[in-house]
Amino acid sequence: MHSEGRSSEKVPLASEPSKISSPLVHKEEPKLPEIRQGGQFNKVQDLIFKKPTRQTIMNTETLKKIQIDRQFLSDVITETMEELQEEGTFTSLLKALGKERESKMHFYDIIAREENGRKKIKSLQKQLLNVKKERQVEVQNRNEYIAHLKDQLQEMKAKTNMENHYMKRNTELQISQTQKKCSKTEELLLEEIEKLRLKTEEENRIHAEIELFLRKEQQKLEEKLEFWMEKFDKDTEMKQNELNALKSAKASDLAHLQELAKTIREYEQVIIEDRIEKEKTRKKREQDDLELRSIIKLQAWWRGTVVRREIGGFKMPKDKDDSKDVKGKGKEKDKRRGKK
């Protein structure tokens, strides 16, 4: 029952960690390992009461917490003493310490999360300040740019008004000049129209005279055309007759020409055959002459050879010297004949 009351009393304290002073929190964190190692819970109270006055803030809530812790501690001791006296064990004390340790761990986790949250809040506040400064600088730049644009707008308005005034004056002057030019041009065009009208009348008169002249010439040409058409028909008929006569003459001449060509081809064939025959006769006669000369030369060479070499009964009736000369001359003649 004491443990249930203790846990119910610890819930509001865990939900309100911001009400406990930061020096107390920072001094309690290093002592957590000693509690985990199995130290007595009384050391926690001793640490709290041994803190200097300048490091702890003794307000109403802190006093309430101390009173609740003291009551819880006395209940645990009483229950432990009863268990020791009755059973000789201190299981309730271990359970109370385990629950207290868990609650402390939960409490420290909440404090750590709160510290992280505070750090994040500070970081976000710094970022917010930086963003605000950047926004302020940007707004100031935008305001300066807007003022500059307003100045430019005023200048543009003034410039536009001046340009509009100038354009208006310029347009009025151009309109007046254009009107003067148009009036002069209109006068010139009227004079030109009058000249063109006179010229048109003259052209119409000339056209009528030319048309009359051309009609007369056309009539004359039609008469000439009729005359020449008749002459053309007569000449055509006469030339056609001449053409027919020439065609008949051409046909007869062509037949005669074909006969002459046939005769000429026959004569050419006879001439060619005669020339071939004469050529054959000439070649045969030349061949015979050549063979006769060759035979004569061969006989003369053989006779000389027989006489010089005294073949058979032929002998030279001269001296030795003469015979040597004859033999030398015979050899020279043989060499010459051989060369030939």
Automatic annotation (TrEMBL):
**Keyword match Coiled coil:** yes
Residues annotated as coiled-coil are: 114-188, 257-293
Enumerate the subcellular locations listed in this protein's record, separating them with semicolons.
Cytoplasm, Cytoskeleton, Flagellum axoneme
One short Pfam name that applies is IQ
Q: Compositional bias (Basic and acidic residues) at which positions?
A: 25-34
InterPro entries tied to this protein: IQ_motif_EF-hand-BS (IPR000048), IQCG (IPR042618)
Predominant place of localization: cytoplasm
Q: Does the keyword Nucleotidyltransferase apply?
A: no
Highest rank taxon of the organism:
Eukaryota
Q: Where are the transmembrane segments?
A: none
Region spans: Disordered: 1-37, 313-340
Q: Which GO terms describe its biological process?
A: sperm axoneme assembly
Q: Which keywords does this Swiss-Prot/TrEMBL entry list?
A: Cell projection, Cilium, Coiled coil, Cytoplasm, Cytoskeleton, Flagellum
Q: Which CDD domains match?
A: IQCG
Protein's job? Component of the nexin-dynein regulatory complex (N-DRC), a key regulator of ciliary/flagellar motility which maintains the alignment and integrity of the distal axoneme and regulates microtubule sliding in motile axonemes. Binds calmodulin when cellular Ca(2+) levels are low and thereby contributes to the regulation of calcium and calmodulin-dependent protein kinase IV (CAMK4) activity; contributes to the regulation of CAMK4 signaling cascades. Required for normal axoneme assembly in sperm flagella, normal sperm tail formation and for male fertility.
Its quaternary structure? Component of the nexin-dynein regulatory complex (N-DRC). Interacts (via IQ domain) with CALM when calcium levels are low. Does not interact with CALM in the presence of Ca(2+). Interacts with the HSP70 proteins HSPA1L and HSPA8. May form a complex with CAMK4 and HSP70.
To which protein family does this belong? Belongs to the DRC9 family.
- Protein name from the UniProt record: Dynein regulatory complex protein 9
Q: Which species is the source of this protein?
A: Ovis ammon polii
